[in-house]
Design brief:
The protein is of the alpha/beta class. It is about 50% helix and about 20% strand. The strands form three sheets. Strands 3, 4, 5, 6, 9, 10 and 11 form a seven-stranded mixed β-sheet that branches. A two-stranded antiparallel sheet has the order 1-2. Keywords: DNA-binding, Transcription, Transcription regulation. This is LysR family transcriptional regulator. It comes from Candidatus Lachnoclostridium stercorigallinarum. Belongs to the LysR transcriptional regulatory family.
Length: about 300
């Protein structure tokens, strides 16, 4: 009879397609791994690997890999569920979110969660949207905190709060671009933040693929302007720092700006900054927690969602 250990060994061997590497990954000898695979092939009466260089899976091996992964997932979820029944305060929780969002959200949520569940092992994965959604899909994290919509299938979401992307304008950039008209432009922006007024200003933006950049591009298209993009960067904090030095205008989520001195009136170099709501549906969204709807959700996970809704 095939047991879970054999299935785990087979999955690693199928992923590596090299018995030497697979054995090292499993901390067993290559001969021991070969014996486990041979036992499975005898049990099923089929070859699972083509003994070529490199190894390849037979059709039977390909089908077993799909089944084995499902069975191992069900095994893990069964153990998690039974552990919850015994004592749901013991376990682990893995959370994925962006670096910047973590700076804002985790100090509010984790202390409250830790005081309620001191024996839960917490793991935090920081990354971009694509990395986090892939991790959630593959079961590497239990939850992901991000903006709707999530772009992978089989994900359920729980809305947390509304979010808005603001336009960040430094006085220095206005003065460099408009000279004596800077005050006039500033007054017009306070009445109505119209991007067409700023088409001659340099912009510092995140690289394409980031949600904030996607919003910016949609705003430019709607305003029918082709912005002068001075720099494109990966890190939103670097973008903000350069904008605060007067190098250009940018866009920044309202939630991130909440506790930053640089956005309370002056930048790091003493340059006044303006935060403007564009009053456009494009700039508004919903922050949510996503989880894989096909995976068992522990009581500790449910409590994290509940506390997040209360604290964020």
């Amino acid at each position: 009879m095939i047991n879970f250990l054999n299935l785990e060994y087979f999955v690693v061997a199928a992923e590596e397609l090299n018995f030497t590497r697979a054995a090292k990954r499993l901390f067993i000898s290559q001969q021991s791994l070969s014996n486990h695979i041979a036992h499975m092939e005898k049990e099923f009466g089929v070859a699972l690997f083509n003994r070529t260089t490199p190894l390849t899976l037979t059709y039977a091996g390909q089908r077993l890999l799909v089944r084995a992964r499902s069975l191992l997932t069900y095994k893990d979820e069964t153990y998690h569920e039974l552990a919850d029944i015994k004592d749901f305060t013991v376990g682990q929780l893995s959370i994925g979110l962006s670096h910047t969002r973590g700076r804002v959200i985790l100090p509010h949520v984790l202390p409250a969660y830790r005081s309620r569940f001191p024996n839960i092992d917490l793991n935090i994965l920081e990354g971009n949207t694509s990395q986090l959604e892939t991790a959630l899909l593959h079961g590497d994290v239990d939850l992901v905190i991000g903006m709707l919509p999530f772009r992978v299938e089989n994900i359920e979401t729980v809305p947390i709060c509304a979010e808005e992307v603001l336009l960040v304008v430094s006085d220095a950039t206005l003065e460099n671009t408009f000279g004596s008209r800077a005050g006039e432009i500033r007054m017009q922006l306070k009445k109505e933040a119209d991007l067409s007024l700023l088409q001659d200003c340099p912009f510092i933006l995140l690289k394409k693929g980031n949600r904030v950049r996607t919003i910016a591009d949609e705003l430019f298209q709607e305003a029918q302007i082709s912005p002068h993009v001075l720099l494109e960067l990966e890190n939103i904090e670097t973008v903000l720092a350069l904008a605060s030095e007067g190098m250009g205008l940018t866009f920044y989520p309202k939630m991130f700006a909440a506790n930053r001195e640089a956005l309370s009136g002056t930048g790091d170099a003493g340059q006044p900054l303006g935060l403007y709501s564009l009053k456009n549906p494009i700039t508004h969204g919903t922050l949510a927690i996503g989880y894989h709807k096909g995976h068992y959700m522990s009581q500790a996970t449910k409590e994290f969602i509940r506390i997040s809704k209360e604290m964020v």
